[in-house]
Amino acid sequence: MPEGLVTLLEANRPTVTTSTGTQFLCYLRGRVRRDAGRIMVGDRVEFEPTENNEAIITRILPRGRQLIRPPVANIRGIFACFSLTYPSGNLELLDKRLVLAALDGIEAEIVVTKVDLVNDTERLHQLLSLYRSIGYRTWSLSVVDETGIAEWLSTPRDGIWVLTGESGVGKSSLIRRTIPHAAIETADLSRIGRGQQTTRWVRLLPIHNFWLADTPGYTALEKEGADPRLIASAFWEWRNVRCRFPDCSHRTEPECQVVAGVSGGQFAQTRYDHYRLMLEQWAKRWN
Ligand SMILES: Nc1nc2c(ncn2[C@@H]2O[C@H](COP(=O)(O)OP(=O)(O)OP(=O)(O)O)[C@@H](O)[C@H]2O)c(=O)[nH]1
Ligand SMILES: [Mg+2]
Ligand SMILES: [Zn+2]
Fold first, then answer.
1. Which of 35, 115, 189, 265 is deepest in the core (most CB within 10 A)?
2. What residues are in contact with ligand 1 under a 6 Å CB criterion?
3. Cα(249) to centroid of ligand 3, in Å?
4. Residue 131 exposure: Cα atoms within 13 Å on the Cβ side
5. Nearest ligand for residue 168 CA
């Protein structure tokens, strides 16, 4: 039975791409639909070709790590895209993306987009050095003057990598710059901020040795019932602190080394504030 990868799910019809690059527009066999629930981009499947490059999916192979927003299966990593201007980036969403990736066992790299528009280079450098010091790989990119693009793409990676970030940060533009024939839609800036997304479908495209997914700009990021300790452990910069209580939640406990580090300027206040927000919004009650 031939195997392939679901690279597009447009109006609920999967497109499957084989290792040689042949594409099939597919239907799901009813039984498969019932057993597997929703099929996702990134799923590996077995299929039976019918005619005219159409096929029936007969089996969805077991899934590895998956993201719910955007919905992609078998993900290796995300590029958390962030722009300082147009739209002016939201650090809370950036930290949430990074923490969600960590909770799901997915790698994350930070991509600052549109750096040709940045006037406040001081702010850019502070942002990059904060996240680098925590241990994230960071990139400053521009599709206008080409800053950083070649190095970003030639870094060895494998598997499925997903561009995530608010609408208008330039995710599709990065794809279009990389694969000019991909017929990817990008927005003009007048639409930004009106809650419209230009990209409506998740689509996987081959880049060197990995797959890159363009996704719509999600901003509602949720994780219900998350273990608060795991949320804290996703803040890598705190990994070596020794609080007085080994199960310290870093809120109001005495002699908390995280709180002390934040007041002393050793840890970023923004990250700490976002940690508190994530506890409130996502965590099961601390007990
Ligand atoms: N100056 C500048 N503008 C850029 C850059 N990258 C993208 N843009 C512009 O930003 C706007 C939005 O870009 P898109 O690539 O459509 O953004 P997106 O993240 O795909 O947005 P959604 O699909 O809505 O999630 C377009 O007008 C792009 O031309 C860049 O590097 N520099
Ligand atoms: Mg887009
Ligand atoms: Zn503590």
1. 115
2. 113-114, 116-117, 142-144, 165, 167-173, 186-189, 197-199, 216-217
3. 6
4. 22
5. 1
Distance CA 128, CA 109 (A): 11
197 shares a domain with 118: yes
Q: How far is CA 43 from CA 22, 62, 80, 159, 252, in A?
A: 16, 8, 22, 12, 44
The CATH number assigned to the domain holding 56 equals 2.40.50.140
Give the residue numbers spanning the domain of 16: 3-60
